[in-house]
């Protein structure tokens, strides 16, 4: 049984965390507890429990580590080449392009995985509750008030059921798929 934490904030948001049975936690904002009906809240909690069941936090940590490793290796390669002298400027430029491309593609892959895991958690919530319209209704309410005032870090913001920072655009570097698309899919169940 995961621990339950409450963030004293009027926003509507939640997230799952932990990498093993001892650390699994579902965190809810006070706003989500007070503003969703029981079926909607059940859908949100089921979404977060699906993240735990699928070990999504662990997988995201692994993907972040791989991007970091590639970035570090690329930096080491660049420093190694640059210390050999300026006469190899073509090699330095090629190494710089390869390094930048690797970090760029690694980041794209990490965010793509994150978006797909959100869809999977939505589907898992439906599997657990048999109430797709309840989660769709909850997401609709969340989309109007997802900004958690205590959250200022992008890495933390992407843990939430909807990105906890304002101004999140739907693009290749978004941690979450567009909430309207998620609602649309849920309403097709």
How would you characterize this protein structure?
This protein has helices spanning 30-35, 38-53, 56-82, 89-129, 132-143, 154-157, 179-186, and strands at residues 3-7, 14-17, 25-29. By secondary structure, it is mainly alpha-helical. Strands 1-3-2 form a three-stranded mixed sheet. Helix 2 (38-53) crosses helix 5 (132-143), helix 3 packs antiparallel against helix 4 and helix 5 packs antiparallel against helix 7 (179-186). The two termini are 28 Å apart. The model has no long low-confidence stretch (mean pLDDT 86).
Q: Any low-confidence stretches, pLDDT <50, length ≥5?
A: none
Portion in beta strands: 5-15%
The largest sheet, given as strand count, sense and whether it forms a barrel, is: 3 strands, mixed
Q: Percentage of helical residues?
A: 55-70%
Average residue pLDDT: 86
Strand order of the largest sheet: 1-3-2
Helix/strand/pairing category = mainly alpha
Order of helices and strands: EEEHHHHHHH
Radius of gyration: 20 Å
Number of strands: 3
Number of helical elements: 7
CA(first)-CA(last) distance: 28 Å
What overall form do the CA principal axes indicate?
A: elongated
